[in-house]
Amino acid sequence: MIFLDHAATTPVRREALEAMWPFLTGAFGNPSSRHGLGDEASRALAAARADVAAVVGCRPGDVVFTSGGTEADNLAVRGVLAARGGTAVCTAIEHKAVLEPVRASGGRVVSVDRRGMVDLDDLARQLDDTVTLVSVGLVNNEVGTVQSLHDIAAVVRERAPAAVLHTDAAQALTWLDLREAAAPADLVTLASHKCGGPVGVGALVVRAGVRLAPQQIGGGQERERRSGTQDVASAVAFAAAAASAAEQRAELAVRAGPWRDALVDAAMAITGTAESVVPAGATRDHLVAGIANVCLRAVDSEALLFLLEHDHRVLASAASSCASGAQEPSHVLAAIGIDRAHAAGSLRLSLGWSTDQADVDAAVEALPIAVARLQAHARDGAPA
Description:
Layout: E1 2-3, H1 14-20, H2 36-56, E2 63-66, H3 69-84, E3 87-91, H4 96-104, E4 108-110, H5 120-126, E5 131-135, H6 149-159, E6 164-168, H7 178-181, E7 187-191, E8 202-206, H8 221-224, H9 232-268, E9 274-276, E10 291-296, H10 301-312, E11 314-315, H11 331-335, H12 340-343, E12 346-350, H13 357-380
Helix pairs in contact: 1-9, 2-9, 3-4, 9-13, 10-13
């Protein structure tokens, strides 16, 4: 199979598997137990915490291990509101793990431009002294837009100086140096399976001074910010994957940028069919290297995904994988101004650590063939 769905999840890196294995077998102790196995697990958990902190550029004690990015996002939004009250603000293109808690709390939503960049003027209008949390994703999971948290933080500090800034950086760790790109954020969400670790573990970085009420209580683990016996094996694997991703980031980005462009260009070359999520005349400098998203006119994305997989062995997604099968338009594409008809033909091809040139070449070759077959079916009613 040709796997071009890394924004949904990534294959587990060998380094992560090797780091994890001892803690699934012999060193299986509970890190809260005061005996040899427990002490070994506790030391391993502390080392994993330090490794994740090094990737983000924070103190080890700031790292709160969670069950994944969704829990970390919920803990950030709900935890701050529970501790401080007030109003939460996020952008219209946030992952629903942020957007839905913000809306459920009666919060405010900030618009974005046609590129998916935050409208800083609208952000300023939405901020006041009642705002206690602002959440802006560092890299959008559907279209790949990279936000400048430094510019966003400047607006927040001016208009709502008491607010904390949260960023969902789950899609960013593989592609950006979080020590710089996420530095302005008080809270940072990470997800293991987006960088080559196992599913089911993530982290919320809670920098010093941030008041956060736990949303999962019981045993007082994670410095009483998230109760529950820690999954040491997964935390160790996550840390190994994050460290590998950080080490390989620059080299991967150099390779992936041209690959992304080749995929977008292949779709755009299908005459009368594609609309790029990048506005006409704009560069792709605001996009992360690993996500290519196009919208195909008069093409049903689910049918296209079926043909790509079953005829060409290419695995991809329609917009966000979290919405796959839901048959609802992408809120991200709607927010950046893609009409519903085009959004129905959204195709996201996303790259990662295991991608190679042959994968990209195969997708470039397969895409026009699959689209032509669907178009022929639409014209004459023949089976696709």
